[in-house]
């Protein structure tokens, strides 16, 4: 699974709903009495369209993600650099994309920055999680070795034993 798709899945199903739930809970708790139903409705109304729209963002971000990955691979950057760079790229692209959408919707430039920053945090976190999962080392397989693959531990003769001890190991 590609990095952009993995990051989108994290954003659509984990980070955006979680960030929206935190924001909605904060607003609901500020009201007297607390508006739990309104908070749940806000999570649904914001998370579902954001998940759908962010799919377009993932598609638009694919060339940038590919270019960044190629650059980081050429300079043999460490894994933490990959994670941080992809998180920053996703956050910036999400903030810029939302700025453009808000400007087109409002018909004026520059729009307020608060919503763009609100979206850039879950986008960056989703990219970081996706990159961590994408660049994770492959788990070692623990398949039992077949008897035919394992050389016999007993030497056939004394000469064979001396030859193995005297010869350098294969590299």
Mean pLDDT: 74
Structural class: mainly alpha
Rg calc: 26 Å
Q: Total number of helical segments?
A: 5
Strand tally, please?
A: 0
Oligomer: single chain
Report how far the terminal alpha carbons are from each other: 34 Å
Given as residue ranges, the uncertain stretches (5+ residues, pLDDT < 50) are none
Provide the helix percentage: over 70%
Strand content: under 5%
Shape: globular
Biggest sheet descriptor: none
What is the secondary structure topology, with strand pairs?
Blueprint: H1 3-30, H2 36-74, H3 79-106, H4 114-134, H5 158-166
Describe this structure in words.
There is one protein chain. The protein has 171 residues and is mostly helical. The protein is built from five helices and no strands. The protein has helices at residues 3-30, 36-74, 79-106, 114-134, 158-166. Helix 1 (3-30) packs across helix 4. The longest helix has 39 residues, at 36-74. It is globular. The chain starts with a helix and ends in a 5-residue tail after the last helix. The model has no long low-confidence stretch (mean pLDDT 74).
């Amino acid at each position: 699974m590609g990095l952009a798709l993995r990051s989108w899945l994290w954003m659509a199903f984990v980070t955006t709903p979680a960030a929206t739930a935190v924001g909605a809970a904060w607003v609901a708790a500020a009201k007297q009495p607390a508006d739990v139903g309104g908070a749940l409705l806000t999570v649904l109304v914001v998370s579902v369209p954001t998940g759908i729209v962010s799919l377009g963002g993932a598609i638009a971000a694919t060339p940038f993600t590919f270019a960044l990955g190629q650059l980081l691979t050429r300079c043999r950057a460490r894994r933490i650099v990959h994670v941080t760079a992809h998180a920053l790229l996703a956050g910036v692209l999400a903030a810029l994309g939302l700025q453009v959408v808000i400007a087109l919707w409002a018909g004026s430039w520059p729009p307020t920055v608060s919503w763009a920053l609100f979206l850039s945090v879950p986008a960056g976190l989703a990219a970081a999680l996706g990159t961590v999962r994408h660049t994770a080392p492959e788990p070692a397989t623990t398949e039992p070795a077949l008897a035919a693959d394992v050389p016999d531990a007993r030497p056939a003769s004394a000469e064979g034993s001396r030859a193995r001890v005297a010869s350098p190991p294969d590299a």
